[in-house]
C-alpha cells in the first residue's frame, strides 16, 4: 500500500469512529444527521453506517441507527482483561460493604478518567439518582474530567507535571459546579497537597451535595493503576471523625489491593511485544 493509501485508510477509520461518537452523543441518528454533521455525501454516510451495522457495532431501528451490543462485548473484555481490573471489582464491593458508601474505581484514559467498577450501598440517600438508568453519572464506562472528582485528582497528583499540563491543554478545566477548580495554578497547588497527605478530597466539585475521598492505586512496577474513591453526602464526609474513619479504611483497603497486585504474574513487556 502506498503512503497516501495508508493515510487515507487511517482517515477513513477516524471518520468511522467519529460517526460512532455522534451516534452515541445523539442517542441515535438518521443518515441525514451524519450528512449534516460531517458535510459528506449521502452515499458516503450510508457506507459508514452500513459497514458499522454489518459488523454489529450499530443496529438499525426504523430509520435510525443506534449503538450496537458489539461494543458491550468489546467493553467487557477491556474492563476485565487485566487481572488487576478483576481484583478491583472485589475490592470495590468489599469497601462499599465496609463503609456503606458508594465506591468507585477509575483509571485514566485519553486524559480523562473512566469508571471501571462501582458499587453503592442501597441506603445511599442519593439512591433515586442511581435508579435512573439514563443518568450517565452512574454507568460503568462513564468518562469524568479528572480535575473535578477525588479519584481523578488522586490520579493527577501521581502524573508528571507535563502530563497534567497536556491534559489541561486537551480538555481544559470545565466547571461542573461553582466549587470546581478551574484555575491551573490552584489545581497544581492542590495536587501538591494531595501528594503530601496521601489522599484526595472533593466536596461539591462534580455534584452539589456530594463529597468523596480517594487514594491512588500503584502497581508493583511503580506505574499508576487508577484511583479508588469513597463517595457520600457532604454532611457525612464533612464530619471530621467520619472522614478520618473513611480515610483509615480506604488506606487499609488500598494497601491490601496493592499487596494482591504483587502476587499477579505480570507479563514480560518484551515477550508480549513479540507476539503476533
UniProtKB/TrEMBL annotation:
Residues 70-263 form the IclR-ED domain. GO terms for biological process: regulation of DNA-templated transcription. One of its GO terms (molecular function) is DNA binding. PROSITE patterns: HTH_ICLR (PS51077), ICLR_ED (PS51078). Residues 10-69 form the HTH iclR-type domain. Gene3D superfamilies: 3.30.450.40, Winged helix-like DNA-binding domain superfamily/Winged helix DNA-binding domain. This is IclR family transcriptional regulator. It comes from Halosolutus amylolyticus.
Amino acid at each position: 500500500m502506498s503512503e497516501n493509501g495508508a493515510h487515507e485508510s487511517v482517515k477513513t477509520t477516524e471518520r468511522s469512529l467519529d460517526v460512532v461518537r455522534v451516534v452515541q452523543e445523539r442517542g441515535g441518528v438518521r443518515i441525514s444527521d451524519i450528512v449534516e454533521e460531517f458535510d459528506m455525501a449521502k452515499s458516503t454516510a450510508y457506507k459508514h453506517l452500513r459497514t458499522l451495522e454489518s459488523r454489529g457495532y450499530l443496529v438499525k431501528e426504523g430509520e435510525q441507527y443506534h449503538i450496537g451490543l458489539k461494543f458491550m462485548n468489546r467493553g467487557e473484555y477491556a474492563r476485565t482483561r487485566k487481572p488487576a481490573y478483576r481484583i478491583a471489582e472485589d475490592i470495590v464491593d468489599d469497601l462499599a460493604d465496609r463503609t456503606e458508601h458508594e465506591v468507585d474505581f477509575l483509571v485514566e484514559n485519553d486524559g480523562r478518567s473512566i469508571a471501571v467498577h462501582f458499587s453503592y450501598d442501597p441506603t445511599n440517600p442519593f439512591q433515586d439518582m442511581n435508579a435512573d438508568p439514563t443518568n450517565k453519572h452512574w454507568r460503568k464506562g462513564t468518562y469524568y474530567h479528572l480535575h473535578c472528582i477525588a479519584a481523578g485528582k488522586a490520579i493527577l497528583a501521581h502524573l508528571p507535571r507535563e502530563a497534567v499540563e497536556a491534559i489541561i491543554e486537551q480538555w481544559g478545566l470545565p466547571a461542573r459546579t461553582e466549587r470546581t477548580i478551574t484555575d491551573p495554578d490552584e489545581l497544581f497547588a492542590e495536587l501538591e497537597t494531595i501528594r503530601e497527605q496521601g489522599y484526595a478530597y472533593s466536596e461539591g466539585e462534580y455534584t452539589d451535595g456530594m463529597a468523596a475521598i480517594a487514594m491512588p492505586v500503584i502497581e508493583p512496577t511503580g506505574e499508576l493503576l487508577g484511583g479508588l474513591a469513597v463517595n457520600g453526602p457532604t454532611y457525612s464526609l464533612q464530619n471530621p471523625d467520619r472522614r478520618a474513619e473513611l480515610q483509615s479504611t480506604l488506606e487499609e483497603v488500598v494497601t491490601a489491593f496493592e499487596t494482591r497486585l504483587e502476587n499477579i504474574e505480570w507479563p514480560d513487556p518484551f515477550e508480549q511485544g513479540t507476539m503476533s
